[in-house]
């Protein structure tokens, strides 16, 4: 069984993907880490994020085993990922890796921006997880404050909201594999849901598709 979970930044899709993967004992891939990895390597080596040729070359040689999820959760890595993910050659370079993960024996759970539309259009279950921009900004803000990456101020929250808006625009407006809702996806709005409520709703949606 392949479960495809898409949605914008800080919508809760990653948390739901991990919980669903644990429930069904399936491997999980946060595809955003691939783009974060490419973006962080670009930053570490001093390459401009808009250099498509170098970004694509890095993507072609990316190894999942080399990705440190914790180090790639920073605000800077997320912003870099949003930029390099808009490059068509980068997305194409990572396509086979993601599809191979999805096609492994027994199935898998993948979350990202184009799983149900591009990576695994034949997935048995598809979810599109969303929330209001304000709620997504609050979630990301609390995460950043908790890690000591930003001050706990109204100005910092406003800056995070602006970042969310920019990422939404890039994700939805790019020419190659934009963020869209797959025609056969179940949309789950988590704005007013707690984690357990959202997990229950997501599992119910997957079970409905399985039946």
From TrEMBL:
One of its GO terms (biological process) is pyrimidine nucleotide metabolic process. Transmembrane segments: none annotated. GO terms for cellular component: cytoplasm. ATP binds at residues 7-15. Its EC number is 2.7.4.25. Coiled coil: none annotated. Signal peptide: none annotated. Keywords: ATP-binding, Cytoplasm, Kinase, Nucleotide-binding, Transferase. It is found in: Cytoplasm. It is an enzyme of class 2 (transferase). Residues 3-206 form the Cytidylate kinase domain. It catalyses: dCMP + ATP = dCDP + ADP; CMP + ATP = CDP + ADP. The keyword Protease does not apply. GO terms for molecular function: ATP binding; CMP kinase activity; dCMP kinase activity. The keyword Nucleotide-binding applies. Belongs to the cytidylate kinase family. Type 1 subfamily. NCBIfam families: cmk (TIGR00017). This is Cytidylate kinase. It comes from Phreatobacter cathodiphilus.
């Amino acid at each position: 069984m392949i479960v495809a979970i898409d949605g914008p930044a800080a919508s809760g899709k990653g948390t739901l993907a991990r919980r669903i993967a644990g429930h069904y004992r399936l491997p999980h891939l946060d595809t955003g880490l691939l783009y974060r990895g490419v973006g962080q390597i670009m930053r570490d080596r001093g390459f401009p994020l808009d250099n498509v040729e170098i970004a694509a070359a890095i993507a072609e040689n990316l190894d999942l085993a080399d990705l440190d999820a914790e180090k790639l959760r920073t605000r800077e890595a997320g912003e870099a990922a949003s930029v390099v993910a808009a490059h068509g050659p980068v997305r194409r370079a990572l396509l086979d890796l993601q599809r191979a993960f999805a096609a492994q024996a027994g199935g898998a759970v993948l979350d990202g921006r184009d799983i149900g539309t591009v990576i695994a259009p034949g997935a048995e279950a598809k979810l599109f997880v969303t929330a209001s921009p304000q709620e997504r900004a609050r979630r990301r803000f609390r995460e950043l404050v908790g890690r000591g990456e930003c001050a706990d101020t109204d100005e910092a929250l406003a800056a995070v909201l602006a970042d969310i808006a920019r990422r939404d625009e890039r994700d939805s407006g790019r020419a190659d594999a934009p963020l869209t809702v797959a025609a056969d996806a179940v949309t789950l709005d988590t704005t007013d849901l707690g984690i357990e409520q959202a997990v229950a709703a997501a599992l119910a949606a997957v079970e409905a598709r399985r039946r």
